[in-house]
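Hi all, a correction to my earlier message: I attached the wrong file for Short-chain dehydrogenase. Here's the right sequence:
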Amino acid sequence: MKLSGKTAFVTGARGGIGRAIVARFLREGAVVHAADLPGSGPDGAQEDGSRFVGVDVASEADVAAAMAEVRERSGKLDVLVNAAGIELEKTIEDTTLEEWNRSFAVNVTGTFLTCKHALPLLRAAVAGAGDGETTASVVNFGSYDGFLADPGLAAYCATKGAVHALTRAMACDHGPEGVRVNAVCPGYIDTPMLQSFFDGAGSGGDGRSIEQLQDAVRGVHPTRRYGTPTDIANLVNWLASDEAAYASGQLWVLDGGMSAQAQQMRL
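and the right structure:
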């Protein structure tokens, strides 16, 4: 088991991707603190073996309290995964300031706060190993939308570009302390967020049926499918493990080859 003896903290743990990461980490032997919005699950020990923690990642008080709980229970943190995120289907002209600020509060400030308050625990995991080789791992969530832009997702694209830059900066600042920082950048993944995109009246609407939209999305991928939460969890699991000890400061695009091709050649 790749994560035996390690303690992990996963935000967005009740979402499609977050659930898959929590399940994979548990199978790999980790102690998992599964964090999501208060009220999205009963606090404390769960049937799957994880421990649910109610956290609004945009609240510094919530994040600080959650990390204090990790310190009390485990004394260290080996792996931090920032999977919490929201998507807004609007152009900037239609986006209110409140919506813009909320998008950045969850996707960017939330990542900042969890990393900030987790760093002492991540350092403790490295120091506790005492071998000079063990590293702690932070996995942030960017998106292929941080490189390329889907129509009608202006705020979302902006937040993911910010997460990409923050990931690189953290990798440079904290690599000498034994803390690795990477970002996973998914493309289209079969989650409730993707379903909301298909149902939406913005870039996912376009007057077509959901079935037509799904077929169109599959068709722009060289693999002819969109991804699954398990696909993402597999990559996150590797980045969290000691097998990825030399991987840091990278933006790992997982999109079925979609961004590798020139889309205009499909016309």
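Sorry for the mix-up. The chain has a mean pLDDT of 92.
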